[in-house]
Design a protein that fits this description.
This protein is of the alpha/beta class. The protein contains 10 helices and 12 strands. The chain is globular and about 80 Å long. The N terminus is likely disordered. Bound molecules: adenosine-5'-diphosphate and magnesium ion.
């Protein structure tokens, strides 16, 4: 297991000019007797994409809920901008610049795109009894912000429900960027998408990174994580089974780790001893690698 080193200069002095946006040190979470997460260490830096990979039940959602203020960690340390922190509400995390886009996007399908974009943060004009929604400015801003991210919507008046899943994810990302998020957490944004739409979402992840946001990208698909990720945290049953900088791991190794390569090898060996089912086992392995490559619905 590789750990990402702290910022040590060649002389050994630490440069703490820029504290990481978010830092987890041996963070754990117990729900009563159930240990959902244990000893997880991870860093989110500005302009970097940190990927969190793991199968169902690995603890991915638990991890992001801690950073997003939905749940509190029970062990270890969470630091935000260098300060030890425990968020007690999602509002606190949001105020600290941490925006989360959940898989089941909290959008109102029949409302126009611009209305969803400003939901809960509407612009108004006038004062007192004359105060009303500044519809023109909200439409204009939505259009401009989306165009800035390379999203070309003909009409921001169309109901958001008419957009594809990928487009909706992109609107949510553009929204977070507009409202000044420093950290953007994406929970399985590509899980329900086809290949082409996944590609579009991956492109906006890179755009957010280029704008200097620290992105946390949750996925179970190494083929989605690898091209955009700078670091990879692998979770399995609540434990970290690896934390790698991109230069230290190849896509093939990432895929093998995700597929439980070691366990399969062991199983192959056992089957061999039982009497030569190796070719069958290879087929199983190939099948698993392939299913990992495909997005799950
Ligand atoms: N609120 C909860 N109460 C009890 N156990 C939970 C709760 N949330 C998650 N867990 C348990 O924690 C483990 C990790 O879950 P989760 O973080 O949702 O995994 P993932 O998002 O990777 O699928 C699972 O075993 C799950 O049953
Ligand atoms: Mg989850």
């Amino acid at each position: 297991m590789t750990t990402v080193s702290t910022q040590n200069t060649p002389t050994g002095a630490t440069t703490d000019t820029a504290a990481p946006l978010v830092e987890l040190a041996d963070v754990g979470k117990r729900y009563g007797n159930i240990i959902a997460l244990r000893e997880v260490t991870m860093t989110v830096d500005a302009g970097k994409v940190t990927c969190v990979l793991g199968d169902n039940g690995a603890g991915k959602s638990t991890l992001i809920k801690i950073i997003a203020g939905l749940h509190q960690h029970t062990d270890g340390t969470l630091r935000v901008g260098g300060e030890e922190t425990t968020f007690t509400s999602p509002r606190q995390a949001l105020d600290a610049g941490i925006a989360t886009v959940y898989q089941d996007l909290a959008v109102v399908p029949l409302m126009p795109v611009w209305r969803n974009f400003f939901l809960g943060s509407e612009l108004t004009t006038g004062f007192g009894p004359f105060k009303r929604l500044d519809v023109a400015r909200m439409k204009e801003t939505t259009k401009a912000e989306l165009a800035d991210m390379g999203i070309d919507l003909r009409d921001v008046d169309q109901p958001i429900g008419t957009l594809s899943g990928g487009e909706r994810q992109c609107v949510a990302i553009a929204r977070a960027v507009h409202f000044g998020a420093k950290v953007l957490i994406l929970d399985e944004p590509t899980a329900a998408l086809g290949v082409k739409q996944s590609g579009v979402v991956l492109r906006y992840i890179l755009q957010a990174k280029e704008r200097g946001l620290g992105v946390v990208f949750i996925t179970h698909n190494p083929h989605h994580a690898y091209p955009v990720g700078d670091r990879f945290l692998l979770l399995k049953r609540g434990r970290s089974i690896g934390y790698y900088e991109k230069k230290d791991i190849l896509l093939g190794d990432l895929t093998a780790q995700m597929a439980g390569g070691a366990e399969l090898e062991e199983l192959t060996h056992e089957l061999e001893q039982l009497g030569g089912h190796t070719s069958q086992m290879q087929q199983v392995q190939a099948g698993m690698a392939e299913s990992q490559a495909r997005p799950r619905a």
